[in-house]
Design brief:
Layout lengths: L7 E5 L4 H12 L3 E6 L2 H13 L4 E5 L5 H15 L4 E4 L15 H29 L2 E6 L12 H21 L4 E8 L7 H5 L6 H8 L10 H12 L10 E4 L6
Parallel strand pairs: 1-2, 1-4, 2-3, 4-5, 5-6, 6-7
Length: 254
Amino acid sequence: MMKLQDKVALVTGAGSGIGRATALLFAQEGAKVAVVDLREDAAKATAEQIERAGGQALAIRADVSRAGDNQSAVNHVVARWGRLDIFYANAGAPQRPTSVEDVDETTFDEIMAVNVKGVFLGAKYAAPIFKRQRSGVLLITGSTSGIRPRPGVQCYSASKGAVHALAKSLALELAPFGVRVVAIAPVATETPMLASFMGKEQVDEEGLTRYRGTIPLGRLNRPEDLARAALFLASDDAAMITGSTVEVDGGRCI
C-alpha cells in the first residue's frame, strides 16, 4: 500500500529543489498535493508533472511571508479536497556569505520573513484544520546551519535555529490534538540555492570539493534524499516522532 494513500499535502517552495522532489514523491505515494511557490510558472510545472504521472495536484502562487497568502493557500486546499493532512513548510531564502558588519537590515529582514515568519504563518493557518481533524503533520525545512553554523551566514543560521526551536514548541502545543511537528535539517543540497550559499553566481568544482570535505559521507544531499526523509516523517511509520530535528546531513553535525 502507498504510504500517503488518500492524504492531502501542501508543500511550499515546491517549484524546484527539495520542494519539487518532495511533492513528486508524495504524489507517487498516493497523496493529493498542493504545489505552492512564489513563482507561479514553477508551481504549475511541478503540478503538471504530477498530473502527467496520474496524480492529483493543485498549483498555488503564494508568498509565504504574507499572512493572507498562507491563509488563502490553506483555504484553497480545504475547499478543493475537504481536508489537510500534511503541511510542509519548505520554502526558504538563502544568504550569500557576508561579514556581519556588511549585512544590511533589509537582507536580515527578508531572510527572517521567509525562513521564520513564513513557517510561523503556515503553522498558524494549518493548525486549526489539524485540530479540527485531530490529526496532521507539520514538517519544516531547517538546516545544519542552525545546528553547526558556518561563518558568514549568520542571518540564515539564526533563522534555521529559530525554526528548530519553533518545531519543539509547536510539537508540545499540538500534541494533545494528535498533531506531529518535525524539522528536517539538510546539509548543502544540489538545488538552485546552492550557488548563493557558495557566494557565487554559479556552482564551481572548487566550491563543491570544499563542501564535500565537510561531510563524512563525502557528497552533498540530493533533493531526493530530503524527499525520502520527508515521506517517512509524514507517514504513519513515524507516528511517534515529534518535536525532533532530523539531520539529513551525511554526518556533518557529528
